[in-house]
Specification:
Layout lengths: L2 E2 H7 L3 E3 L5 E2 L1 E2 L9 E4 L16 E4 L10 E3 L3 H12 L15 E2 L4 E2 L4 E2 L4 E2 L4 E2 L4 E2 L4 E2 L4 E2 L4 E2 L4 E2 L4 E2 L4 E2 L4 E4 L4 E4 L2 E4 L5 E4 L4 E2 L4 E3 L5 E4 L4 E2 L4 E2 L4 E2 L4 E2 L4 E2 L4 E2 L4 E2 L4 E2 L4 E2 L4 E2 L4 E2 L8 E3 L4 E2 H12 L1 H24 L1
Parallel strand pairs: 4-5, 5-6, 6-7, 8-11, 9-12, 10-13, 11-14, 12-15, 13-16, 14-17, 15-18, 16-19, 17-20, 18-23, 19-24, 20-25, 23-26, 24-27, 25-28, 26-29, 27-30, 28-31, 29-32, 30-33, 31-34, 32-35, 33-36, 34-37, 36-38
Antiparallel strand pairs: 1-3, 2-7, 21-22, 38-39
């Protein structure tokens, strides 16, 4: 496929600066691009790359321009480039089709239209599978579990009993949905298991990364809100509620009964203690340890987590600690010398 820069600009509602007849034959990252490719730059601090890239043209914004290449100006270069990638790199993942003869399907299972079930997958009794669902090889879908339309489940995913999965959900390999919550009562040094009889409810347009674990509730539901995206290796404990459009980055751990609001971002390796609330639109930066609730529309950082600017000042003070200790020692020495002189007098 090939298109001119003018044709591409019309597709993404952009403005061409330079030769609009430049022919584009592919799309790639700014460092990897070769002749004929179109690329993008979303952050103006990397403007130096615009003069170094081999790409034929660049999608960018008003605050990041160059005369070295033809460009397309757009308000959101990242989103525009997503559309371009889809055009030049069609989805050729080659999802399987149909129901493999080795799949095991239980009693009273309801299968929608155009369902795919891969080799050696197991669909337990009374499960409900919606239209256009793709379940790859080696998956387990528990009894009375419901999966909505157009959901994509990659190999070796385990979804246990009485779980509800919405429409257009993507679940990557190795994820476990509905495992028991971690609950025990210790009596005379013996740990007695607390039954976990609740479920998990995952709303529409959620994406769940590889090897994510989402525990079922002790009672009620563990809930993942619409549009939330969860990165790889995240642990979400029982009775957690995560709101809509949250971003949960790799290796986050969320303890039981936490409430995470809408549009919250949790950076990599953030840890949340149980029974706290993270307000809407809050951001918690990577490796922070959160022991108390966080208000809406704030940014927290550090261990223990503090308001971001407070934590920055604390870190800056820590950097000066060796110098401060040296200064205190010098002052102590001078005080001792003064005291000695006064004593002699």
């Amino acid at each position: 496929m090939q298109k001119t820069l003018n044709e591409i600009a019309k597709l993404i509602d952009g403005k061409v600066v330079g030769n609009g007849d430049t022919v584009i034959t592919g799309a790639s990252g700014i460092r990897e691009a070769s002749e004929g490719d179109i690329t993008f730059l979303a952050n103006s601090k990397y403007c130096s790359l615009m003069d170094k890239t081999r790409a034929a043209a660049i999608i960018t914004s008003e605050d990041a321009q160059t005369k070295a290449k033809p460009i397309i100006l757009t308000q959101n270069p990242s989103l525009a480039f997503v559309k371009i990638i889809s055009m030049f790199t069609p989805d050729d993942a080659g999802h399987p089709n149909g129901i493999d003869y080795t799949a095991v399907i239980g009693r009273n299972v309801s299968l929608g239209n155009n369902v795919t079930i891969g080799a050696y997958s197991v669909i337990a009794d009374n499960a409900i599978i919606g239209d256009d669902v793709i379940i790859y090889a080696g998956c387990y879908i528990g009894h009375h579990t419901k999966i909505g339309n157009q959901t994509l489940i990659y190999p070796h995913v385990s979804i246990r009993e009485r779980i509800s999965i919405g429409n257009r959900v993507i679940i990557h390999s190795g994820a476990v949905i509905g495992s028991d919550g971690f609950g025990f009562i210790t009596i005379k040094e013996v740990h007695h298991k607390i039954p976990q009889v609740g479920s998990v409810e995952i709303h529409d347009d959620v994406e769940i990364g590889a090897n994510v674990t989402i525990d079922r509730a002790r009672f009620g539901k563990t809930v993942i809100g619409r549009g939330t995206k969860i990165d790889n290796l995240v642990q979400i404990a029982h009775n957690v509620t995560i709101g809509e459009n949250a971003l949960i980055v790799a290796q986050v751990g969320v303890a039981g009964s936490v409430i995470v609001g809408n549009n919250v971002t949790l950076g990599g390796q953030v840890g949340l203690v149980g029974h706290i609330t993270i307000g809407d639109n809050a951001v918690v930066t990577g490796q922070s340890g959160v022991a108390k609730s966080i208000p809406p529309n704030t940014m927290f950082s550090g261990y223990p987590a503090r308001p971001y600017m407070t934590n920055q000042r604390v870190n800056a003070s820590l950097q000066n600690l060796p110098k401060l200790i040296s200064t205190v020692r010098e002052l102590k020495k001078k005080i001792e010398e003064l005291e000695a002189k006064l004593k002699d007098k």
